[in-house]
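Aim 2 progress update. The chain analyzed this quarter is reproduced below.
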Amino acid sequence: MIERSPGRGDPTSYVIEIEHAIKEFGSVRALDDVSISIRENEFFALLGPSGCGKTTLLRCLGGFEQVSSGRLLLDGRDMVGSKPYERPVNMMFQSYALFPHMRVWDNVAYGLRAERRPAQEIRDRVDDVLGKVGLLHLSERRPNQLSGGERQRVALARAIVKRPRVLLLDEPLAALDRKLRGEMQIELKRLQHEVGITFIVVTHDQEEALTMADRVAVMRAGRVLQVDTPVELYDHPANHFVASFIGKMNFLRGVVAPGGLQVDLHGLVRSRPSDLADGSDAYLAIRPEAARLLGAGVAPTPADVTLPAIIEAVAFVGSQVQTHIRLDGVATTFVVTSDKRDVSALVGARVLVAWLMDDAQVLAA
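Predicted structure tokens:
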């Protein structure tokens, strides 16, 4: 597992430290030796496909499941074995779980009343947090009188009003439409900065994780493959899975050789250095926006890597044009994106696809 690039805050101050966590359900190992450290006041995302273990890890942190082995430290104290109500952690569920018969104000106040807080403190804290999420003017309404985005903010207000050390969010935006989800991503990030609570969010949406999080842990089959900032994950994925899961990526398969990758029909395709052993199977990975097409009469630069190809399709996708090409002797389609609004490329035309050597990365197969 690769971990680098610190998030915000004191790099030596960890609020959550997960050490060699294993969780087994019978013969199924849902978490397989997971170790992650999460910093104070950090927005941290657990990202991966369905069944990768991210929600199981979140539930273990919340106390709704217990790890089979390993340690879950909060401020240096092991939480393993403690009940959910014994942890300074709160969880916002995907379903929101609002009380339909209660006003917004009462929904938010419920947890404080259960703790028997003084009435004035409850009033002050509920009004304050409703103001932060922009719902003070809707405090007398009931959940069925609210939009999806407003209900999501009520659930968030109820979670943060207790001022937990850590807030756990289980796919909190999954029930929203695409436009509202985009707006709430920015809203969640703003609120997290404002309230100063460590957020840990589970999502399978890569765009959501990259938009909101200071750092992201990419998971697969119960393991953490890489922990990094969004920029580092995108620019320097640790392996083929991370590269294919984060954004779009073109791959050429071959064998590692000095200076690049040996690819059938194309010989040595140059790339920046890798730490893989010569002779090992690997992929050459190139982002679509790093490549460009050279038509007849356009010469490559000395720094370019070029391969012959044929255009298969051209798609206009708003701010970009996607050109799908087929490299000679390669079965998979190669995609080139450009912000030039030119869809005049001819399907069937012969071209060269070019990229700078340093823009290609060799990854283990």
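The two ends are 16 Å apart (CA to CA). The helical segments are 54-62, 104-114, 119-132, 148-160, 178-195, 206-212, 230-235, 240-245. These observations will guide the mutagenesis experiments scheduled for the next reporting period.
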